[in-house]
Amino acid sequence: MAKNSSKFATLGQQEADTADLESLVGYNLKRAYIIVEAHFREAVGKDGMSARVFSALSLTVSYPNITQIALARVMGIERSGLVAIVDELEAYGYLQRAPVPGDRRIQALVPTEEGLAAYNEALGLVRDKEERLLSDLTGVERQTLFALLKKIRRMEED
Amino acid sequence: MAKNSSKFATLGQQEADTADLESLVGYNLKRAYIIVEAHFREAVGKDGMSARVFSALSLTVSYPNITQIALARVMGIERSGLVAIVDELEAYGYLQRAPVPGDRRIQALVPTEEGLAAYNEALGLVRDKEERLLSDLTGVERQTLFALLKKIRRMEED
DNA sequence: TATTGTTATACTCTATAACTATA
DNA sequence: TATAGTTATAGAGTATAACAATA
Q1: Taking CB atoms and an 8 Å limit, are B30 and A7 in contact across chains?
Q2: Averaged over A131-155, what is the pLDDT?
Q3: A81 to chain B, minimum CA–CA distance in Å?
Q4: Is the confidence at residue B25, as pLDDT, over 90?
Q5: CATH number, domain containing residue A26
Q6: Looking at the complex, does the CB of residue A150 fall below 8 Å from at least one CB of chain B?
Q7: Residue range(s) defining the domain that contains residue A80
Q8: pLDDT digits (tens, 9 = 90+) for A115-136
């Protein structure tokens, strides 16, 4: 199991690549995500939206009038956790909680004009950044990466 | 931009797959990781190690006598954050902080026999679980997934 | 002066449980 | 009774800054 039993090892790239961890999908996914997320933050800038806030805004743009509970479900988080996210987006003036006639428990989420503009600008920056990050990958490789990640995502129920 | 402007949309799988977010690598990586991490927790059991503690133990097994600062660097976290992780592993009796003759600032991390046994058992469970999770992927697809994730990981410096 | 490990502290993300107002 | 949204609270995981011991 031990790949290196010399005392006071210095870790070269080769050695690091043969460690057990490197053969696990979870570890590789997490490390890759950390890098992509750092690039996301660079793309949106120092005072830009966090990834989860951007995601929530993106989904309200794609699905206007979505309810908080539905949005939480799509995002895979608890509805309680969404409150602060929506509060933040509302404070930015990027969306509104609109009353729904017929059921006063529900508030439909609708992006404002400013929200739409801010979203489209951020989306452009993020896409450009991902484009550059993935510039070493061919078109086929990118398609394959997406297909494989989505295949894993579909395993949720088991 | 809006794919669905009907009021009170219910989100079918098809609609969800065409949202902007679905075209971003970061979002897909994160969602895939969440699923794999949940399977990791199932594999190691209710009172099993967390992923980061497992990772630290794995790396001390692969690189016995590694220092905390080197381990933190490999894991991509701050050295201050590693203290609690090593404390936990030491409390389990899975590793020891061993003094290094010649430099009393440094403590080399060495797995115990129990640590090695616990690690190998956990590694087996995690590998089996990942195996089952990825059973829909062909051998080539898995190799490709690893290759693409590692390619992204190598983009760190830019 | 610089480095290793440590502590104190704070921030982000998330979950659980209980509450409210409605249905 | 059940549901949508909210609040309170706690627990991971991480980072920054300052410190002690040692080099």
Answers
A1: no
A2: 95
A3: 16
A4: yes
A5: 1.10.10.10
A6: yes
A7: 15-151
A8: 999 999 999 999 999 999 999 9
